[in-house]
Write a structure and sequence with these properties.
Layout lengths: L8 E5 L3 H7 L7 E3 L3 H11 L3 E5 L5 H13 L6 H19 L3
Helix pairs in contact: 2-3
Length: about 100
Amino acid sequence: MLSGVTERGVLICGSGVGASVAANKFAGIRAGLCHDTYSAHQGVEHDDMNVLVLGARVIGVELAHELVRAFLGARFTREERHQRRLGKIKALEEEVRRHAP
C-alpha cells in the first residue's frame, strides 16, 4: 500500500474503531470497519477499500474468517461512478497534503 509492497491489509483491535480512525489518517489508505460480508466485499468493489478493520471484541473467529475471505476475494469494479468516487477521495487527500504544515 504505502510502500508498494502489498495491496491490502487487515487490522484488528478491540472495537475496530481506533484502528480504523488511525489507518485513515494515511494518504492512500482506505480502511473500513466491517461486521458483515456484504460491507467487506462491497467496500472493495465500490470504494477500492484496501484495509479491512475488524473488532476482536465485536465479532467471533468464524465471522472474522468469512470477512477476510470476502475482502480478499473482492475486486474494485472500475465502473465510472466508482472511479469518480475514488478520484474525489484522492483529490481530497491531495488537498490535505498541500495544506499540511
